[in-house]
Write a structure and sequence with these properties.
Elements: H1 2-5, H2 8-36, H3 41-70, E1 77-80, E2 84-88, H4 90-115, H5 119-125, H6 132-158, H7 165-196, H8 198-222, E3 226-227, E4 230-231, H9 237-259
Antiparallel strand pairs: 1-2, 2-3, 3-4
Length: about 260
């Protein structure tokens, strides 16, 4: 167990996943804050912390459920045609459906944030909240909605790291707990930083497209899918880590350049 958690693959996965969990949690923080701001000032901080803790609990419960389904790798149906072979399992179905969901969710989120950045916030603002209980119920619903892509991202980043699914589950839980602790401690600072640098969140959503595509190919690989005698291979996670690190480095350079004062000729 310790050897797995201290391996380079696990460390890279943990760092990348924690970063993505925080980026994905920004909208969650914003909506929780909007719901909390409808209450008296003395209750706002309490509701915000309760909301983030509920998000953590919900994600851990969902992680157990999804990890159980992903662990069902035994094929229950085999399709064998002249041009295609497929061994269908619940693991492959969950990964394939999760990949499609991440691609759809991330592209629609990017489109919405470009065309109408305040659309979701306006919807939450329009809902009446008169008590602490109503705020917590609304936050629970918001947390559940935002937990889905978070969980699928965690599965995509850790699936295949270890043959022992429990090790992958522990790594996902550690990433979720760390990200929630960071959000509780630095929620306002993180939100202000993203407000000043909205391209970071767009970049994080773009990473989900990569993860979604990786989940689809991994589903094909684990189901031993072949097209015209060509096997579907899994994308090595090292490629994903490199793409994310390179994109963040380019974004860092862009931020540096944009903050430099332009010299007048």
């Amino acid at each position: 167990m310790i050897e797995f958690l201290t391996s380079s693959d696990a460390i890279f996965a943990l760092l990348t996943l924690t970063f993505l969990e925080i980026i994905l949690g920004i909208d969650n923080i914003v909506f929780i804050s909007i719901a909390a701001n409808k209450l008296p000032e003395e209750q706002r901080g309490k509701v915000t912390n309760i909301g983030l803790l509920l998000a953590m609990v919900q994600r851990i419960i969902l992680l157990f459920f999804v990890s159980f389904l992903v662990g069902l790798s035994k094929p229950f149906y085999t399709l064998d045609l002249n041009w295609m072979h497929l061994e269908l399992s619940w693991q492959a179905i969950i990964l394939f459906a999760g990949g499609l969901f991440l691609i759809y969710k991330s592209t629609s989120e990017i489109r919405e944030k470009v065309s109408d950045p305040k659309h979701d916030e306006d919807e939450v603002k329009g809902k009446a909240i008169k008590s602490l209980q109503q705020a917590i119920i609304q936050i629970l619903i918001i947390d559940f909605i935002f937990s889905i892509d978070s969980i699928l991202t965690a599965v995509g980043m850790t699936n295949g790291l270890s043959d022992n699914h429990n090790y992958n589950l522990i790594l996902m839980i550690i990433a979720v707990v760390i990200s929630i602790i960071i959000m509780i401690g630095f929620a306002n600072k993180i939100r202000r930083f993203i407000d000043k640098n909205p391209s970071i969140q767009i970049l994080g959503l773009s990473f989900l497209i990569l993860i979604g595509f990786m989940l689809i190919t991994e589903a094909g690989h684990l189901s031993h899918t072949t097209f015209f005698d060509k096997k579907v291979g899994a994308i090595p996670k090292g490629y994903l880590y490199f793409a994310i690190a390179f994109s963040l480095f380019v974004e860092f350079l862009n931020q540096k350049i944009s903050k430099k004062p332009t010299k007048k000729v």
